[in-house]
Design a protein that fits this description.
- This protein is an alpha/beta fold and 324 residues long.
- The chain has a domain at 8-49 and 139-148 and 190-323: Rossmann fold.
- Helices cover 38% and strands 19% of the residues.
- It is built from 13 helices and 14 strands.
- The protein has a seven-stranded parallel beta sheet, with helices on both faces. A three-stranded antiparallel beta sheet has the order 7-6-8.
- Helix 2 (22-35) packs across helix 13 (306-323).
- The radius of gyration is 19 Å and the shape is globular.
- It binds ligand FO1.
- Ligand FO1 binds at residues 21-23, 49, 58, 60-61, 63-64, 79-80, 102-104, 108, 168, 171-172.
Length: 324
């Protein structure tokens, strides 16, 4: 790269794309916004976790990003609304309505009612998400990976026999305690990238993969036909979700095991592959990680507070800049 390092991302004007799912991804995005205040960030959100409950469409990863960046998240949990109450949930349970294992709060119900109403009126999920973000103003453009319905289902075998359960049932009710024989994105082959997704990737100056779950969040988004190929043309830097052989939070280890991948920063880098990833941030204890064609940088990865998260995001951006 010729000339002085391009630090526009510090002063603004960069177009950044980030793939995100779940709690770790949303928290990282808060740091990304702080590290690149003037940049235009497009988030491609995972919709494989989406589930229909009580006739309402729930989009956990889109909502986690929207609430976290919009200031409405339950900070300790990392999902659902702050200041939540569960009167509707208790009343549903009083009627014996199932499932009772998924904690939908009263405030959260409003989001799902509006989303379901708009979907029923024929609006695609991308327009519904845009409408919900009108209220929350997350400060990023949040796009679902696809407007087509996809769901992550998990094949398990326990005393109730061998069957496929929705990812949320495996994740929340079973706490991933029953080994997943297979993790399948139902609808993947027919799913098309949502409007704006491929354009955002094409126009991006750089792409960041946050430390989201590499299987059921990042991995799911990469299964939408066309997205991985589009990303391979860009400068992409990822942040390892695994530190010293263990996930920082969540149950990425159970997901990696399910697809026969070791729980390590090296194995996740190889899962993404050097065709996709140009730079890879790992924790100090994983500094031996290497893969031809990938610039590996070791630094603290724990997002222990907002400053640490901002610094982590800044390091990812700086590495991406140096590789452009
Ligand atoms: N996770 C849980 O562990 N228990 C819950 O009861 C739960 C409810 C819930 C409600 C709305 C929502 O948007 C997310 C919720 N989550 C819950 C988290 C969710 O399972 C995960 O955030 C993602 O699907 C995986 O990242």
């Amino acid at each position: 790269m010729s000339g002085p390092p391009d630090t526009r991302w510090k002063t603004g004007g960069m177009r950044i794309v980030s793939l995100a799912g779940g709690i770790g991804g949303a928290r990282f995005l808060r740091g990304l916004k702080a590290a690149a205040p003037g940049s235009e960030i497009t988030v491609i959100g995972n919709t494989g976790d989406d589930i229909t409950l009580f006739g309402l469409r729930v989009c956990p990863d889109l909502d986690t990003v929207m609430y976290t960046l919009g200031g409405g998240i339950n900070e300790e949990q990392g999902w659902g609304r702050d200041g939540e109450t569960f009167t509707v949930k208790e009343e549903l349970a009083a009627y014996g309505m199932e499932p009772q294992w998924f904690g939908l709060g009263d405030r959260d119900f409003a989001t799902h009612i509006i989303r379901t109403q708009m979907l029923a009126a024929g609006y695609p999920l991308s327009q519904v998400t845009e409408a919900l973000c009108d209220r929350w103003r997350p400060g990023v453009r949040l796009l679902p990976m696809s407007d087509d319905r996809t769901e992550t289902h998990v094949v398990v075998a326990d005393d109730a026999g061998r069957r496929a359960v929705h990812f949320q049932e495996w994740w929340v009710r079973l706490r991933a305690s029953v080994p997943a024989e297979q993790i399948v994105l139902v609808g993947a082959a027919e799913a098309r990238p949502a409007p704006g997704v491929l354009d955002a990737i094409r126009d991006a100056d750089l792409v960041i993969l946050p430390p989201s779950n590499p299987v059921v969040s990042i991995g799911t988004i990469l299964q939408v036909p066309g997205i991985r190929a589009a990303l391979e043309d860009k400068t992409v830097v990822g942040v390892s979700p695994i530190i010293g052989g263990a996930p920082v939070r969540g149950m990425a280890d159970a997901c990696l095991t399910a697809i026969g991948v070791e729980t390590s920063a090296q194995a996740v880098l190889e899962l993404y592959g050097s065709a996709l990833v140009d730079g890879w941030l790992v924790a100090e204890e994983d500094k031996g990680v290497a893969l031809d064609g990938v610039a590996v940088e070791a630094r603290p990865l724990l997002m222990s507070d907002s400053a640490a998260t901002r610094d982590l995001a800044a390091a990812a951006l700086a590495l991406a800049q140096s590789l452009r």
